[in-house]
Amino acid sequence: MKFLCVDCDRQMAFDERAVPGDGTMAAVFRCPACGRKTAMLANPMETQLVSSLGVKVGGRTVPNENFEGIRAGVDEARDEALPAPPLTNPGPVRWSVEAVERLGHVPSFVRGMVKKIYNEYARERGIEEMTPAVMDRARSDLGLEGM
Question: Which of these, 146, 124, 142, 129, lies nearest to 47 by C-alpha position?
Answer without folding.
Answer: 146
